[in-house]
Design goal:
By secondary structure, this protein is α+β, with helices and mostly antiparallel strands. Helices cover about 25% and strands about 30% of the residues.
């Protein structure tokens, strides 16, 4: 995928990419994703944690309403990159500036 944005990407494991690779890219993505489960349900949110070496590999997704959901790898069909990529273009640099300014305001 190179340096281009993953926004809008809807990969399917087995089509030149594994679920592990999709999860890693979703973990690095700075936007919301849609986790499509094998039973047809979809969970939308920010994938902020994953552990593929756990006895039962899982991802954790923070939903927009606030609760965190833990999903097992074996229940995931795919992950779609549906949220706006905040790192695309100059928005990541703007985010870094805002973060630095906020930290500066908190320091005594």
């Amino acid at each position: 995928m190179g340096d281009s944005s993953l926004e809008g990407w809807a990969p399917m494991p087995g089509e030149g990419i594994t679920l592990d690779e999709i999860v890693e890219r979703a973990f690095d993505y700075r936007g919301d994703v849609t986790v499509v489960l094998r039973d047809g349900r979809e969970v939308v949110g920010y994938l902020y944690n994953r552990d593929r070496s756990a006895a039962e590999p899982y991802v954790e997704v923070l939903e927009p309403s606030g609760p965190s959901v833990t999903l097992r790898y074996r229940d995931i069909r795919t992950i779609r990159f549906t949220g706006r990529d905040t790192a695309a273009g100059g928005s990541y640099e703007a985010w870094l500036r805002r973060k630095a300014e906020a930290v500066g305001r908190r320091e005594p």
